[in-house]
Amino acid sequence: MSDLIDMIEHGSLRGSLDHCVKCTICETACPVSNATPLFPGPKYAGPQSERYRVAGEPSVDASVDYCSGCGICSQVCPQGVKIAEINARARDALKREHGVPLRDRIITRPTWLGRIGTPVAPIANLALNLRPARILAEKALGVHRDAPAPRFAGRRFSTWARARGRERRADRATAPGAGPPDHRGLPRRVVYFHGCGTEFYEPWEGEKVVEVLEHNGFQVTVPRQGCCGLPLQSSGLFDDARRTVLRLARSLSAPLRDDADAIIVGNATSCTLMLKREGREILGLEDDPDLRLVSRRTYDICELLLALHDRGELRTDFRPIREIVAYHAPCQQQGHGIGKPALDLLALIPGLEVREMNARCCGIAGTYGLKAEKHGISMAVGRDLFDQVLASGAPTVACDSETCRWQIAHGTGRRSVHPIDFLHRAYGLDDAGA
Amino acid sequence: MSTLSTDVLVIGGGATGVGVAWDAALRGLDVVLVDRHDLAQGTSGRFHGLLHSGGRYAVKDPQAARECVAENRILRRVAADCIEDTGGLFVTTPWDDPGYADRFAAGCAETGVRCEEVQPSQALRGEPRLNPRISRAFRVPDASIDVWKTVWAMSHGAQQRGARILPYHEVVTIDRSGDVVGGAVARDARSGDELRIEARVTVNATGAWAGRVAQMAGIEGVRVLPGRGIMIAMNHRLVNTVVNRCQMPTDGDIIVPIRTVSVIGTTDQHTDDPDDHTVPQEEVDRMLDEGERLVPGFRRARALRVWTGVRPLFEDAKADSTATRDVTRAHALLDHEQRDGVRGLLTITGGKLTTYRLMAQETVDAVCRQLGESRPCRTETEPLPGSESGEHYRLGERLARKEAELRGEQLICECELVPRSKLERAIAQTGSTDLDDIRRQLRLGMGPCQGGFCTYRATGILHERDGLRALEADASLLAFLQERWKGVWPVLYGDQLRQARLDEWIFQGVLGVERLPTAPETAGAGGASGAGGASGAGGASGLAPREAP
Ligand SMILES: Cc1cc2nc3c(=O)[nH]c(=O)nc-3n(C[C@H](O)[C@H](O)[C@H](O)COP(=O)(O)OP(=O)(O)OC[C@H]3O[C@@H](n4cnc5c(N)ncnc54)[C@H](O)[C@@H]3O)c2cc1C
Q1: Pairwise CA distance, residues A127 & A132, whole Å
Q2: A286/B contact by beta carbon, under 8 A
């Protein structure tokens, strides 16, 4: 019987094309097809072309590879067509048939890159910023010379987290009475899913997440974890993506099984979306019990904190921050269907003036903007956002997703941070010297 | 009245009639073909789309099965481009007599149907939407065949060899003097003019209408019992293989994937009138129920439209004991010289689309006998124009063509990927201002939105290119909307209902088509209305479900 359900569910992704009434709302909202004629648009590539695709027959529409996978089409579709997901599957079929460039095999494995780059960070960072090296990389690999490359932090978040964990256990042993405040029903234990960006490139964002959570009385555990597989999935490497996300689901589900109240929280919105929905839906993993468990109990960090606030349980001992901050909600964050909790949280900080950007997409879409043939498109897509940021006069842009932050910094020259940075500062945690 | 003169006059432009024209032209005979409507607008344009492997008849009608086996092989070769090699499956569902499967396998072996039993799990891997509770599965070489492509190809081929193909010419009189038929008089449906066609031999290939035409020649007892069947096209390919229930042939037991859709059918309801296109709601429900048994979730999938076709089931009222009553699905060739003592007239009716070539071959053999000439048949080896490469049609072809020129021209029909230049060419070639004629050439308006977005675009182009008067353009638009609407309303639920609402907002809300001025008797609607009854009375677009049962 579970076979039957699987089959219906499985069929439903493609089957959702039945809901298309050709209204074209997705085409007007698609940031990519509005920036380049190389992508024929979500309606065309999605529900329309899907009727011409036969499993097992050669793919004939390589243009679907120009879809960035931002997912805006599925969000704006008033009829519930899973457009971006249909496109993702078509991309997978295309890659299966025509093979995957070496470049895509490399840039879609952040864990692998991070492990190599971290110990030699100074050299690696130098190379990533050295013009001749970048030109070489473009020629040899097809990674665009101007694409925003993150800098290796040279240290790993998990190292910090392990040390922190030991410290906390020692604290609890010496002061057994000083437990976290009571939450009246809200799970007190969180499993922190930090993702690869935090692990290798921005460990400080993870440190802030943990400190903010602890400040609110959470006991944070950080299990060993790897990549969620999203970069692989969005480049159409489905088999590898499946293996990767399932490996992650194994390690994240173990603590959930031990504690029925525990939840997972993450600050990488695209990676949490992968856990919540995309892994099951796009990769067709509806049946995996680990992933199902993980997906049901995963929260975005801002989503969790705002829920806490709604119950009156978020600490609001905020110091004023007299600044202007621009906020951009990444497409993948919008894919969660949780509104824009970061905006509400930032609004709690006295003195902080938040300017919400009214642009669709920064253009990077994970690894899309890194690719030589797509970088120009990604910058054209981001133009609108960049202009708004520059016009806002804000020195800093808050944004929930790391690759978007890198792109925004690249496109505007402004600093870009996770919204948690502001909460952390307002709690006074940064000068607590924790 | 002007007069044409020819060797062979073919009455009826379905697959059979056009097949006769092609066969005769290949043998070097001079041919005129007339149809009261456009080509393939009778039963041929309203069939299920299945090129039979013979499996369906393996138990019930071994003779028909053998014919299908042979014709399936030949057509795959000569009409390759009109055929998609989907393959077929016969599956035993929990509702089917489990004993039938063995009889089926034995029947196939006996009649030469290539049939291989596979594990149900293997069948399910290939067709994951199929009911997982199937207990047996057999692979057979069923395929889907695009009748319009087939008919246009034969018609063009015949024309290249001098044949004159005259659509919209209805035969009103058969010229008989004494015991000889010398041709017929046809009326041009557009101009009203009459045309006399003198022919050495006249072939009555009017399918379900064959009895009426025979009667015009004073020949009695050609009784064709029209058997009406409905089919429902689903929005996309729920299966990519022809799927048959492994049981005695009955209603709603086949799903055919053809072009962008999958079609479930069919029923068999006796009717007195071959132009009866009633769609009983009960039959629609039955089809959807049967669909649900083959593909769980079928009822929730989107139905696009419904249509009906009328089988020509021949019964010879004049038959002596030699004619068996059971072979109604086999074809009947009547040589009226032998049967009735009337020279110069043959009737060919019954049969299946799959056997049209064989029917044409036998008919033209008989024509040659009457003419006293010996001309061997060539259709078994001569590929239809467009099929020379021997490569089968693939669903992805249109998408591939569009991909090659993505930045090129505008798509007029987005669902069926019809670009502007193709539409303009079809308008020029057909000389028709009836969008429904264009539809059968290009599949214009046959996708999910059922003309919602292409109708107004196409009308604009028609108006611009053909210099149509505004009133005529209005009439074309309304007739096409009406035509599309006829097929949509019996399945107005779920997604298709939402689409119909959007289309209605476009045509009535935005464009106000209800208030379009039209000429009292619209010229363009003449052909379309005949095809299926209701014409746009009072200029109403028909988009409001006022006809709903
Ligand atoms: C519901 C249904 C499903 C079917 N499915 C299949 C299938 O899947 N596979 C298969 O192999 N077969 C199938 N068949 C059978 C097949 O469709 C028919 O056997 C075949 O199309 C008959 O072709 P025809 O040319 O003989 O008749 P038609 O296509 O009906 O042609 C007769 C033509 O004569 C014209 N005509 C009538 N009167 C006059 C007149 N007075 N003057 C001029 N012209 C006139 C009509 O306009 C018509 O175009 C199906 C039939 C039905 C009803």
Answers
A1: 9
A2: no
Beta bridge partners of B11: B34, B204
Domain ranges of chain B: 82-143+225-317, 397-542
pLDDT digits (tens, 9 = 90+) for B343-382: 999 999 999 999 999 999 999 999 999 999 999 999 999 9
Distance in angstroms (rounded) separating the CA atoms of residues A273 and A253: 16
| Ligand 1 midpoint to CA B16 (Å) | 8
With a Cβ cut-off of 6 Å, ligand 1 is lined by B 11-17, 34-37, 41-44, 47-50, 52, 170-171, 205-209, 213, 229, 231, 265-266, 309-312, 351-354
The pLDDT, as a whole number, for residue B380 is 98
Q: How far apart are CA A80 and CA B218, in angstroms?
A: 62
pLDDT tens digits, A270-279: 999 999 999 9
Name, in order, each residue with C-beta under 8 angstroms of A10's C-beta and a sequence gap of 6 or more.
Answer: A284, A286, B128
Closest C-alpha to B416, from B319, B325, B484, B363: B484
Q: What is the bridge-based pairing of β-strands A323-328 and A352-356?
A: parallel
Determine phi and psi for B148, rounding to 5 degrees.
-65, -45
> How confident is residue B320, by pLDDT bands cut at 50, 70 and 90?
low
Burial classification of residue A127, based on how many CB atoms lie within 10 Å of its CB (0-12 exposed, 13-18 middle, 19 or more buried)? middle
* Domains in chain A with CATH codes: 2-98 (1.10.1060.10), 157-310 (1.20.1050), 324-426 (3.40.50)
Q: Which residue in A223, A230, A202, A201 sits closest to A109, CA to CA?
A: A230
CA nearest B296 in A: which residue? A8
CATH tag for B82-143+225-317 (out of 3.30.9.10, 3.90.79.10, 3.30.930.10, 3.40.50.1820):
3.30.9.10
Question: In which element (H, E) is residue B287 found?
Answer: helix B281-294
Give dist(CA B208, CA B46) in Å, integer.
13
- Counted across chains A and B, CB pairs separated by less than 8 A come out at 98
